[in-house]
Write a structure and sequence with these properties.
By secondary structure, this protein is an alpha+beta fold. About 30% of the residues lie in helices and about 25% in strands. The protein folds into 2 domains: about 240 residues, no CATH class; about 160 residues, no CATH class. Helix 2 runs antiparallel to helix 7, helix 6 crosses helix 7 and helix 9 runs parallel beside helix 10.
Length: about 550
C-alpha cells in the first residue's frame, strides 16, 4: 500500500475494523437494493426469475459494491453511470444532478446493453454533495419492437428491437415525470408490468440513498468516502497479485457463434490474452466484423464478459468492483462483432455473444494458468497451489425462449450443465457464465400465461463423461394454448461444450416445435396447441473416464 493511501485513510479515521465494517455495509446496501427490487416488482421475470441487478458507485462512476446478480448486467453498468454523469455535467448548473433525480436509459450505444434491459441511475447526495450513484438494471419482458418480448431473432437493425431510451430524467427532484413514464409504457405490449417494474427499480435506488446517508451520519461522510477508495484499492491489489502469478506472454483461443438469425453460418471469434507483469490485455483482432443479424455486441458488453473471466480466476473472498478489474485492458476494432456501432442489431449479443466471449477468454486464460502451474518448482503436483482451478466448459448459452401473444409475453433463459473440474462433477440444471437467474416456477408460469408445461426434467444423457463428469442439461416442453409468436436465441446447437484433461464434451442442445427441428436462432408464429421443446446442452467432463 502506498504511503499517501495510508495517510488519507488515517486522516479520515478509517482504521482496519471500521474499514471491514464499511466494506460489508456497502455490499449489504447493494444486496438490500436487489431484495427490494425483487419483492416489489410486478413481472414474473423479475419477481420470480430475478433477472435484475443492483450496484453502488462512487461520485466518479467507479463501482464500489454490487449484489450477487447477473454478470452481464454488472460488468457493463459502469458505462450507464458514466454517461449519466456526463449528461448531467454538460447541463447548466441549475439543471445538474440534484437530490431525488432518477435517470432512465436502455440505449445500447449510450450506456445500455440491449433494449429489454432498462437501467435506472440515481445520484446520491449527502448534505448537498453528490457522493455516489445507485444503479439498477432489470430485464423488462416487452419493450416494444417487431415481436412480443423484444428479442426477435430476425431483427436487422436496433430500431426493430424496441423502444430506444437515451439517458433522460424519469424522476426530477423527487417528482415523477409522468409524461416520460407514459411514453415508455405506451410502447410496451404489457404497460402495467412496465410501470410497476420501473417504480420498483426507483424504490431500490432510493433505498440506497437512505442507507448511504445512515452510514455517513454514523461514521462521517469523509470516512465513508475513504472506504470507497480503500475497497477499490483492495480489489486491485488482490487482482494484480493473481495476474502476476501468470507467466508473461500471449495466449490465444478461438471459437464461433452459430449463426446470427440472418445467416445460419458460423461466425469467428478470436482472442489473444497478453500477460505483462501484473496487467493483462484482451485483444479481439481477427474477430468477425459486425454481422447482419443481432449477435453484435456493444463494447460495454464485451468488456463485461472479460471482467467476468478475470473474476473467475480470483478467490471467492475478493470483492467484485472496479478496482478488481483495473489490471484489465480490452482492445476491440470499432464496427466489429465485439464493438458494434449504431444501427447494428444487438439483442442477442448481450445474451449469447457475451457467453461465447467469456468462454473464449477463459480458454486463453486457462492456457496461462496451465503454463504457470507447469512452471512451479515440482510441477503441477507440488504443494499448496495458489492458482485457480478452472472447470471444463459449461453449456455456454442462455437458451433464450420468448413466447408472446395478445397482451402477454413470457421470457426465460433455461439452465443447463456446468463443466466438471478437478474438484468434482459439474452441477446439473444451472446457469453458467454471464447469467445468474432462477427458473420460472411452473405454477407461476401456468397461472400467468396461456401455456401448459408438459415436460421439465434433467437429461442425464447430455452430461460429458469424465473422471468428474459434466452437469446435465434439461428438457422443457411447453404447449401454447392460444396463438402466439415464438423467438429462440440459442447457441451450442452444433459445437459442443468441451471437456478438459481428457474429459468428453457435453451434448449439444436442441430446439423444436411439434418435433420439427429449429435453427439456433429463429422467430415464427405458433398455433394454439403447438408444443415447443428446448433441450439444453450438458457440461464438459473433466479427466479421462475410468
Amino acid at each position: 500500500m502506498d504511503d499517501r493511501a495510508g495517510e488519507n485513510r488515517q486522516a479520515a479515521g478509517l482504521d482496519p475494523v471500521t474499514l471491514s465494517v464499511l466494506s460489508s455495509a456497502l455490499a449489504g446496501i447493494a444486496e438490500e437494493m436487489g431484495t427490494l427490487l425483487v419483492r416489489s416488482a410486478y413481472s414474473s421475470n423479475i419477481k420470480e426469475r430475478r433477472d435484475c441487478s443492483a450496484a453502488l458507485f462512487d461520485a466518479t462512476g467507479r463501482m464500489v459494491a454490487q449484489a450477487a446478480h447477473v454478470p452481464v448486467h454488472l460488468g457493463a453498468l459502469y458505462e450507464s453511470v458514466r454517461v449519466v454523469a456526463e449528461r448531467a455535467a454538460a447541463r447548466s448548473p441549475e439543471a445538474a444532478d440534484g437530490p431525488g433525480d432518477v435517470w432512465v436509459l436502455n440505449d445500447p450505444f449510450a450506456g445500455g446493453n440491449h433494449l429489454p434491459d432498462v437501467t435506472l441511475v440515481s445520484p446520491l447526495d449527502f448534505e448537498g454533495e453528490i457522493v455516489g450513484y445507485a444503479a439498477t438494471r432489470a430485464h423488462h419482458s416487452d419493450m416494444g419492437g417487431m415481436r412480443p418480448g423484444s428479442m426477435p431473432a430476425d431483427s436487422r437493425e436496433i430500431f426493430a428491437e424496441g423502444l430506444i431510451i437515451p439517458p433522460v430524467r424519469l424522476v426530477c427532484a423527487g417528482v415523477w415525470q409522468e409524461d416520460i413514464l407514459d411514453l415508455i409504457c405506451a410502447n410496451s405490449r404489457t404497460p402495467d408490468l412496465r410501470r410497476g417494474d420501473l417504480r420498483a427499480q426507483a424504490a431500490a435506488n432510493r433505498l440506497a440513498g437512505v442507507r448511504l446517508a445512515e452510514l455517513a451520519e454514523r461514521h462521517g461522510v469523509r470516512t465513508v468516502l475513504a472506504a470507497f477508495d480503500e475497497v477499490l484499492r483492495y480489489g486491485e491489489r488482490r487482482s494484480r497479485a493473481l495476474v502476476a502469478l501468470l507467466p508473461d506472454g500471449s495466449y490465444e483461443a478461438a471459437s464461433e457463434l452459430e449463426g446470427d438469425g440472418a445467416d445460419d453460418v458460423d461466425i469467428p471469434l478470436r482472442v489473444r490474452v497478453t500477460i505483462a507483469g501484473d496487467g493483462l490485455t484482451v485483444d479481439f483482432a481477427g474477430t468477425s466484423p459486425a454481422v447482419r443479424g443481432n449477435v453484435n455486441c456493444p463494447r460495454a458488453v464485451t468488456r463485461s464478459a472479460c471482467c467476468f473471466a478475470l473474476r473467475v480466476l480470483l478467490p471467492d473472498d475478493v470483492p467484485a468492483n472496479d478496482g478488481t478489474y483495473a489490471p484489465l485492458t480490452v482492445v476491440t476494432e470499432p464496427g466489429s462483432l465485439v464493438d458494434a456501432r449504431r444501427p447494428s442489431a444487438v439483442v442477442a449479443g448481450n445474451v449469447e455473444t457475451s457467453q461465447r466471449i467469456a468462454d473464449t477468454v477463459l480458454a486463453a486464460l486457462g492456457a496461462a494458468v496451465d503454463a504457470a502451474r507447469a512452471a512451479r518448482p515440482g510441477g503441477p503436483a507440488a504443494g499448496a497451489d495458489p492458482l485457480p482451478v478452472l472447470p471444463a466448459q459449461g453449456q455456454g448459452t442462455m437458451n433464450n425462449l420468448v413466447i408472446g401473444g395478445d397482451g402477454w409475453t413470457y421470457y426465460e433463459t433455461l439452465a443447463g450443465g456446468a463443466g466438471g473440474s478437478a474438484r468434482g462433477p459439474g452441477p446439473s440444471g444451472v446457469h453458467v457464465g454471464m447469467t445468474n437467474t432462477l427458473n420460472t416456477p411452473i405454477e407461476a408460469l401456468e397461472l400467468e400465461y396461456p401455456m401448459r408445461v408438459e415436460r421439465y426434467e434433467l437429461d442425464e444423457t447430455t452430461a460429458g463423461a469424465g473422471r468428474h463428469p459434466g452437469g446435465a442439461g434439461l428438457v422443457r416442453s411447453i404447449r401454447v394454448l392460444a396463438p402466439a409468436t415464438l423467438s429462440v436465441l440459442t447457441d451450442r446447437r452444433r459445437h459442443a461444450p468441451q471437456g478438459a484433461e481428457g474429459g468428453a464434451p457435453g451434448a449439444v442442445g436442441h430446439n423444436d416445435v411439434d418435433g420439427d427441428l429449429l435453427p439456433p436462432k429463429t422467430s415464427r408464429p405458433l398455433t394454439a396447441g403447438s408444443v415447443v421443446t428446448i433441450r439444453t446442452p450438458g457440461g464438459g467432463g473433466w479427466g479421462t473416464p475410468g
